[in-house]
Each structure stands twice: as C-alpha cells, then as structure tokens.
Amino acid sequence: MLRKPPRTAEKILDNLKRDMRIADIGDGYYCALDPLAKPDQRIVLAVWVLLQFIDFVEPMAHYPAVYPSQLFFLKENMGYEIVVLYEGEKNLLRLLQPQEDLKYVIVLPRISMVAELRLPKAPCLFATVEFQGADEPNVLFYTEEILQDAANQHLY
Q: Within this chain, do residues 91 and 130 fall inside the same structural domain, yes or no?
C-alpha cells in the first residue's frame, strides 16, 4: 500500500478505520467519503455485473440509475439498466419504465426465480453473481431464449 513498509501501511489502515474512513469488507476495505456510509450490497452486485461489460463501455458512460435499477450504462449506443432483485421482490419489476433503446440486466440470487417474474416489455438479460470464497465472484449470464429452452426441458 502506497509503497510503504507493511508495518507503516498497517498503521495507516488502523488510523483510517479509527476515523471511520474505511471499513473491513471481506478480504478488503470499503472506502467512503461519508464516515457513516455503509456499502449498498445491491450496488456492489451491480458493479460486479458492470465489470463484465467494462471493455465495451466508455469510462464515463455509466451512472446511478432510477429505482428499482441500480446502475445505467451505455454500450454501443444502447442503454442498459442493471436491476438487482432479492428473494420475494419480483413485483419491483413493475416499477420499470421500458423505453426504446433500453435493455435490462436482471440480477437474481438464483436463476429459477425467472419463472416467478413478470418481465418488462423490453429485452432482458439475466445474471447471477455467485461468491464461492474467491476474491472475485462468478458472474453467469442467461438469455431469455436459454431460459425458455430450460423451462421447456425443466432444467432449472
């Protein structure tokens, strides 16, 4: 850290924690300008999904989105909103405002939840973010077509 000896870096981290400028999160740290801020897990999951597209997104082409979406980004002149749902939140999709040139990436805790959803009248891509003890989660994507085939064959 900052090219300092480990002992010095540890003292810096301890001071930042004491001043409530950082907090332990997993094997890393959460850094916030507001000392009382806590990480929003929905945003964290949405960022992991966004990172899968990062090579195709301009550096300044992603923004906070309007609830119930977490993030909005532009990819090849198409708008995408990332919506993170938890168990029992299927009705939140009714709040979405589909528009032309807008697609949704719906992040679910388990892909079988798709069968319970009433989807917006817009193209949707589905994702799961699985933390399995690694530093980085495994982000899996599913298209509507793949899910329809799986439903027909009772695979999920």
A: yes
